[in-house]
Amino acid sequence: MAELMIILDKSVVYGLKNSEVDSLDRYFFLIVPPIVTKEILADLSKEAEEPDIVDSIGRHSYRISGRRGIMINYREILLQSLMGNEVPMEGKFLPAGAAAVRSESGSLGTKIETTLEDQTIYRWERRQFTNGEKDWAARWRRRMERPINPALYTDNIAKVGLRFRPPESDEELAETTDSLLRERKLQARLFPLLAREHRIPIEIQDATTLRWFKEGCQMFEDFAPYAFFCLRANFLWALGLTNPRLFKPDKNDRKDLEYCYSLPYCEIFSSNDNKHKRLVPSLLRPDQSFVDGEVLKKDLRRLSEEWDALSREERIRLKSARGDAPPEDENSIVFQLWKKHRNKIPESVPQELLKANIHDTSIPEEERREMTFADWLRTRGKELKAAGKLSNAELEELKRSREGADPEFVVRKTMISKERLLKLYPHLTREDLDKADRDE
Fold first, then answer.
1. Residue 148 CB coordination number (10 Å)
2. 3-state class of 329 per DSSP?
3. Which of 80, 155, 204, 302 has the fewest C-beta atoms under 10 angstroms from its C-beta?
4. Span 259-296, pLDDT tens digits
């Protein structure tokens, strides 16, 4: 993926203007973890005290309906980790709605569709909400505003005979957390802690405990790496609250903590939250980046103003020359991020190539017909979109044979308005998009 993969927390999502969001679309792929949409919808519970909240939710929904993908719920990754099915934490986007499929020609691939989520966000943009969503918003907000209880952690530390002193600095907090999590005698207590905080089903708890004993009672970090990552984030947050001079409890603590569970599956995280600014760097790998939300917003606004000042022909030339790479400017945080995480401009496909006549050699010679490269791409795209999901039996066979471990193609279907596409791709016209609709 050429564009930079970023997660924004609510504070940044709410702070961006539409022009800045359009700028974000040009250079980033926005990963939307479920906590983002939940926080947006939860504001419905404020309707009584804030009559204009519905309009606000509609505006905020625009910020997550551009070039983006919905991420799988972190709990699914967590449960798989506990069961021994680990997903590597390499900064790769984990999409919701992914399914193994086979095309008509027999090739195996992955189709990513989040139709329900896409339609829901689009509906919110139009200020349309169901009564069920309003009821859910009130319940979820009450549950997520429960305070984090540091005693749940300090009591378990004390029960195994370990000493704990409230940390005096962010650095000491990270050191204390890591020192405690390396203690062998604390390992057996980590499972119940994790189960309580993340509502792990009892059958998963039993299976995990049995696996742990069968595999020699490994250190938790080696036994279930992603589950350990979530637990480490919990410890950092909870133990930080043991010193009120370091961190004070907040009703948003649980919501802000949930963003941390998505960190292993992005390249960049941006927030304006003070605790995020101080704790997230301790959770990131060296090949990831944290960006202050206000710094990002300022640069996106500048890039938007520069883009708007260009003619359509200039935008087409710039997009053709640089693709998803921002203009070179060492003072630009967007350029700095691109330089760290990409630093190579992919070669663009010349427009003339799309008009070149080709023959599809994958089909019998007597069935071949001359077509342009653009027509072939459209035909191939239709075939892949029509690919059918594999049955459970076929999936089990794939697991046994290891065939198709790496899909031959990936198709991602998402809703994005024509207005957003025209802003994102200056060479397109409305007639192009209308023709694409007719070809569907």
1. 17
2. coil
3. 155
4. 999 999 999 999 999 999 999 999 999 999 999 999 99
